[in-house]
Amino acid sequence: MTWRGPTYRMVDGERIDGAWCHIWRRYRPGGEYYLDDLVVFADGAISCEEHTDLAGLAKMLTTGRLAVTDPGNPCTDEPSKWASRHGEPLTPEGFLLEVADRIEALNERPTAGQRCWDAIRRFQEEPDEPNRERLRAAYLAVPPHLRIYVLGDMDRQDRPLRIMLTDVGEAVDGDGPVVTAQMHQGVLDYFSRGDQGVKSEQERRAVQHADDPSEPGRPALISHETVFPQGWPEQPGLFVLRNDFPARIVLAGDSYASVLHGYWALSAADASERSRIRDAASGREAHDLGGRATRRSDWPVVRLAVMAELLRAKFGQHPELAQVLVSTGDARISYTGFSDSPFWRDVPDSRGRNWMGRLLELTRSELVAQRLLRPENAGVLNQEELLSGESARPRAPRE
User: What pTM value is reported for the model?
Assistant: First the structure.
């Protein structure tokens, strides 16, 4: 059973997160089964054509209204449990445990697998019989069809646990090897090696990822495309990030009414077309004229650099707009809309490159660096200080 998400529903203005999977459903006794969606929410509500809860789901499974596997393709039993590379068959009882686990996960509470690992840790610290029984209970609480994944080791699967939970002198799973005290110790050694491996990997990651931010970043900021038929509002807020926002910029001796005017004018091969685009009445008109113009032959190579320079000019020449961009902190900027190509905007599939959002984030970081290095002259970036680390040292006040 594969779970998908995220999904959610709103209850009294509150978002309730959920996840969903496929399940087999029939609409009348003796009828055919069809694939349907089963949605589970953090508050315990369950939806599958009708709203229910865990107890209602159990009843629907018991009466045969729902089935967890294709009734027309029953699973075959494995000849040997010990030798099998597959988990236990998916059953209604196991699926109910999995749904309960999914609710725990949606509430960011420990799942059965995590509780099993807690029991493993306790047993490692004190490998006595009471802790082995606690480990047994925690292992058996994991949905049977998911137990082979609980250790995250697809070579040994859950065999180390099955060995440890089998008494000395008995055969694992009834048809496996007879357990010895040495085998029990081997399982403890296996967990110790795993701990050491995890520790080594954490130390390696700490070195390799030493420059990662220590605090979580801000939530993603979505820049929406918006039309203002009556003109831009007095306080446009984050709409100043849009390329069609009217902010006159000067670049290489030419003046443009907006980034959109500059981008499409500079893309044109013919000088007369450049002039028409530059003088367009609005950013949208400049976009339309530019889209019809003959493109420069080198445009695919230079367009990112041109856009970056236009953004530097826009926010460098308009401090009030720069303040809005800097105020977004370290939030990822998702530049959405319909007018720009997926190369520039954030599209929820493989086509969306979000280059506008990425270049806005780059411009923001440059603005912050400029303010750090030259608070009294934010438009100048002292590269020597930036590269040498001198910018981090306290500055003496100027006369």
Answer: 0.66
Report CA-CA distances (Å) from 5 to 25, 33, 40, 232, 276: 21, 24, 10, 38, 48
- The number of residues in the chain equals 399
Looking at every residue in the chain, the average pLDDT score rounds to: 91
Handedness of CA 354, 3, 218, 246 (dihedral sign): positive
Q: How far is CA 320 from CA 10, 228, 258, 304, 324, in A?
A: 37, 21, 15, 24, 7
Of the CA atoms within 13 Å of residue 198, those in its CB half-sphere come to 9
Structure tokens given for 161: 């646990």
pLDDT score, position 264: 98
Q: Are 220 and 332 in contact (CB under 8 A)?
A: yes
In one-letter notation, the amino acid at residue 167 is D
Over the range 169-182, which residues count as b (16 or more CB within 10 Å of their CB) and which as e? eeebbeebeebeee
> Following CA atoms 383, 389, 392, 394 in sequence, which dihedral angle do they give, to the nearest 10 degrees?
-90
The whole-number pLDDT of residue 66 equals: 95
CA distance 391 to 374: 9
* Closest to 46 in 3D by CA, of 7, 4, 69, 18: 18
- Residue range 221-390 forms a domain whose CATH class is mainly alpha
Q: What is the DSSP letter of 171?
A: B
CA 343 to chain centre: 20
For residue 89, pLDDT over 80 is answered with yes
